[in-house]
Amino acid sequence: MQWHHVANNWPAFLDAILDRWPDAEENALVEVDGDQHAFIRYIAELTGQEPGDARDEIKEWLAGELPSDVIMDPHHDNHSINLSGKFLPEGEDESDDDSRYGDDAAGAG
User: Which of residues 102 and 80 earns the better pLDDT score?
Assistant: First the structure.
């Protein structure tokens, strides 16, 4: 993902940021408000790293997939579903019905 995805959807990324950096404080993140330099400084301070090391850690985090709940777009969702196929056992399709797992509402599908 690119930083502009994060900056433009900052509130939606707070949970993902807190998952990655559980010691972060939500109020401090709200104040960062998508400012990349402020975020780097905050993570450096939080983790006791040099800013360059914090920037590398954030860059590594950005290399991951854009969380599917951040952008509500059918094209993005379908792309994410297709990418998930690499984590499925052989013979199972990423579009298979998951009702057997109890995820779907009764009568849906």
Answer: 80
Rg (CA), the chain: 17
Taking the model in full, what pTM does it have? 0.63
Q: What angle do CA 32, 35, 41 make, to 5 degrees?
A: 70
Tell me what percent of the chain is helix, strand and coil, each rounded to the nearest 5.
60, 0, 40
Element (H, E) at 46: helix 36-47
Helix (H) / strand (E) element for 12: namely: helix 10-20
- Residue 27 exposed, middle or buried by CB count within 10 Å (0-12, 13-18, 19+): exposed
3-state secondary structure of 86: helix
